[in-house]
Amino acid sequence: MALLNFKRRDDAVKPANRQVEAFLQGYSIEVMPRTAEKVEDFRDLLPQGTRVYIAHIDGTPIEDMVATARRLARDGFNVMPHFPARIIKDRATLANWIAMYRGEADVRQALLLAGGVAQPVGAFHSSMQLLDTGLFGDFERLHVAGHPEGNRDIDTDGGDALVMEALRWKQGFSERTDAQMALATQFAFEAGPIIAWADAIRAAGIDLPVHIGIAGPAKLQTLIKFAIACGVGPSLKVLQKRAMDVSKLLLPYEPTDVIAALAAHKAANPDFNIEAVHFFPLGGIKTNAQWAIDNGGTAGVPANQTTG
């Protein structure tokens, strides 16, 4: 049945870049219920134990989210659904969602974030408020959002004062909880700003490990559309420059350059605080999974990240 055979590394073709192979170990990927429905069997695409985030877009019924979580958990994946604060009506709704996830899919991991809607539907507008409810007290892993190129929804002046204040609060929370915590970031296309941001937050006393957001292979026009919609900042110029090159305009974008640069930096600086890669499969799950496999990302979630 399997389309891809995940052999032991010593039986497989060795990827050319060992640094990239090492950097991709423990990568995660994001799906939505409607995109997951198009995948016949995730076990044909992803290494066993891969962490799969389930994005909760406003308007998606919680029943669809839970059904996707149940399917992925049944097939042996570490499931991490989104909890977007601004689409959760109240504490009772949040408690009900958690109970459904726990009861039907044994979910023990969550990504808490503000969410992309401008106006909250109810009592919550930030991940900090969700954490403060105490309802995630028995979760084993909690991720919160990071923004390597800033977030103008939070710091409207283009600075980072409020974002850093929020990170310091989350750092403090991580020291009070037994859950493993990490920053899962928005995607970016250039290694330099990512490295500078990661170093800056560490210098500021934020030692939460970073799971860096990377856009998977996709058509250039698709990436530019998503990048603008998601507020990607300085590294958007990488795509814009590529779009001006007629020889590259029609070729699909691949994250090879940015990952290779980050992998090289990690190899040279082992204590670099980026712990894992998180893929946004904007060009399709199958395409992204194949790119990861081709570049050595076939080891699943390392022991120090596995939960449940």
Strand order of the largest sheet: 1-2-3-4-5-6-7-8
Count of DSSP H/I helices: 12
Work out the count of structural domains.
Answer: 1
Mean pLDDT rating: 85
CATH architecture title: Alpha-Beta Barrel
Order of SSEs, N→C? Answer: HEHEHEHEHEHEHEHHHHEH
**Helicity level:** 25-40%
Assign the CATH topology: TIM Barrel
User: Total number of β-strand segments?
Assistant: 8
- Supply Rg: 19 Å
Please state the structural category: alpha/beta
Shape: globular
Note poorly predicted spans. 1-13, 299-304
Distance between the termini: 27 Å
**CATH top level assignment:** Alpha Beta
The fraction of residues in strands falls at 15-25%
Q: Major β-sheet, in short?
A: 8 strands, parallel, barrel
Keywords: Oxidoreductase
Protein name: Methylenetetrahydrofolate reductase
